[in-house]
Amino acid sequence: MEIGKVPENVLKRSVFKKLTVKRPEVLVHAGVGEDCAVLAPTEDALVLSTDPITASAKEIGTIAFHITANDIASSGAELVGILLTIIMPPNSEEDELKQIMDDVSQLTEEYDVEILGGHTEVSAVVNQTLVSVTGIGRIAKDKLVTTKGLKPGQDLVVTKWIGLEGTSIIAAEFEEELKKRLPVSIVDESKKFASLFHKTPVTVFLVSATIPLIPGAALYRTMNWMLMKDWAKFQKDGIYTILFAVSMAAGMTLTTIAFRMAWRWMYRQRRM
């Protein structure tokens, strides 16, 4: 892409198509020509945090989202929306922008967070992609948690390991250099730490647990004919197995979508 603001046609197909979450608190949503998002006033306190990330790591969008979301969560607030700024170096490909948006969009759907707006640009000022995420959260005023509120004797709860996030970023960013100084196994294991930031979708467990059981005999016969190199029977049972598996996957997908929509509706009704 050329230096300057990202063209409108690229924005429409690689950015705005990814903005799928719409929160009830937002009166004016992100769009072409909209410079400001508008949130309706509430009785809750608003919590804001911003963090820029500069890296060539493949999951830079994921890392940037989680860092800001973590800051908002540490105050006890619910993350409502984010402002997303992406500055890319010259000669960056549109696919890189699309990958960042795919990663961030997936997380916004998972956590019911709206992308309120932002900025996308190609600039010679940077030599690697910069992603900045500003988070806006809400919390009841009497529930707010601040670092000044900490008192001697209180427990500090750590759910994983201190330094987990930084270790994964360094391992991904300086992989080749680190492998010259450290055992390859340590570097590879450190890169995997990034996966601990994600919640595994329930569909992953449903599919992996169900496929070995259903269609059961058909799947067994298909594999058996393949091992016996009886291609006629393999094709016959294979087609049946594929159709059966596709219908199951479609059913589970529709059920998951319906459940999420119902849950979000009930959640918003409670908030309102």
Can you put this structure into words, describing what you see?
The protein has 272 residues and is an alpha+beta fold. It folds into 3 domains: 4-146, 60s Ribosomal Protein L30, Chain: A (2-Layer Sandwich); 164-197, no CATH class; 202-271. Helices cover 46% and strands 17% of the residues. The protein contains 9 helices and 7 strands; from the N terminus they run E-H-E-E-E-H-E-H-E-E-H-H-H-H-H-H. It has helices at 8-14, 60-74, 94-111, 164-173, 175-179, 184-191, 202-210, 217-228, 231-271; strands spanning 4-5, 26-28, 38-39, 45-54, 78-88, 114-122, 130-139. It has a 5-stranded mixed beta sheet, covered by helices on one side. The chain has a two-stranded antiparallel ribbon with strand order 2-3. Helix 3 (94-111) links the parallel strand 5 and strand 6 (114-122). Helix 2 (60-74) runs parallel beside helix 3 (94-111) and helix 8 (217-228) runs antiparallel to helix 9 (231-271).
Task: Provide key terms for this protein.
272 residues, alpha+beta, 60s Ribosomal Protein L30, Chain: A, 3 domains, 5-stranded mixed β-sheet, two-stranded antiparallel ribbon, 46% helix
